[in-house]
Amino acid sequence: MRKKTRSKVKYTDDKGEIKGELRVIRRGELPDLDALLDKLPEKTKVTLELDNSALEFSTREARKRNTSYQRMIRNLVRSYAQSHT
């Protein structure tokens, strides 16, 4: 029977030092949260059938890049639409 070993977390030397000078940000200097929400693109949920090979490719590539396959497909469709508009 093999003994389970815990993997050790590796830390970097970066201690999160702040570069430059700090200053107080006063109320009103930052945009309203509602204004930030307005900048998000409107989305509509859809159901889409894909070939198994296309879905496997998307999930494999997304996993390599530490993102979701849905985001990759959404960005692919958006890029295609923008280049043909």
Index terms:
flat
Question: What is the compact description of this entry?
Answer:
By secondary structure, this protein is mainly alpha-helical. It has helices at residues 33-38, 52-64, 69-83.
Write structural notes for this entry.
By secondary structure, the protein is an all-alpha fold. The chain has a domain at 50-85. The protein has helices spanning 33-38, 52-64, 69-83. Helix 2 packs across helix 3. It is flat and about 55 Å long. The termini are far apart. 0% of the residues are buried.
Question: What does the secondary structure layout of this molecule look like, with pairings?
Answer:
Blueprint: H1 33-38, H2 52-64, H3 69-83
Helix pairs in contact: 2-3
Strand count: 0
Number of helices: 3
Order of helices and strands: HHH
> pLDDT average, as an integer?
79
Shape: flat
As a whole number of angstroms, the C-alpha radius of gyration is 22 Å
Outline the biggest β-sheet. none
Strand proportion:
under 5%
Distance between the termini: 62 Å
